[in-house]
Amino acid sequence: MINYDLQKIKAVVFDVDGVLSACTIQMDEKGEPVRTINIKDGYAMQLAVKHGIRLAIMTGGHNENVRFRYEYLGVKDIYINCSMKIRTWEEFLSRYDLREEEIIYVGDDIPDYEVMKRAGCPCCPKDACAEIKEIAAYVSDYAGGHGVARDILEQVMKAQGKWVLNEKAFGW
Questions:
Q1: pTM here?
Q2: What are φ and ψ of residue 79, in 5° steps?
Q3: Could you list the mean pLDDT of each consecutive 10-residue stretch along the chain, which spans 172 residues?
Q4: Ligand-binding site membership of 151 (annotated)
């Protein structure tokens, strides 16, 4: 269980590689990365969007397929090729007038460190690097790409009374 007041969470920001996709990436015939996705993560993400929880993606990756997948789920804020995540983080907060304590950031590796130090509730998958686990308020029982987003979003929505058994839970 996440040891944080999840009622005040207004946004959840995800890294992609190692969080929303597994730590290994296949390459297609052109050398482009082919990421895995978790269907249960996708369900939880689209449900969170329906309930007004702002979701964002911040990835250092360059693949536009990431944008296509998460736009399909209703995510509006997708930052591709985000090499300095702290700058993007500051822009995101300013754009939506959010306070850091209202945001969960889910990361797994050193490029996420600066943002995780600032996020109100930093979270990570169980296979995150040691430095990230040390600063995380919550380490999921799930590895990256294997349900960590579902785990975290389900806890947030349950705490806010938004999880299942209402008209928004059924259908896409």
A1: 0.92
A2: -105, 105
A3: 97 96 80 81 96 96 87 96 94 98 98 98 98 98 97 97 74 58
A4: no
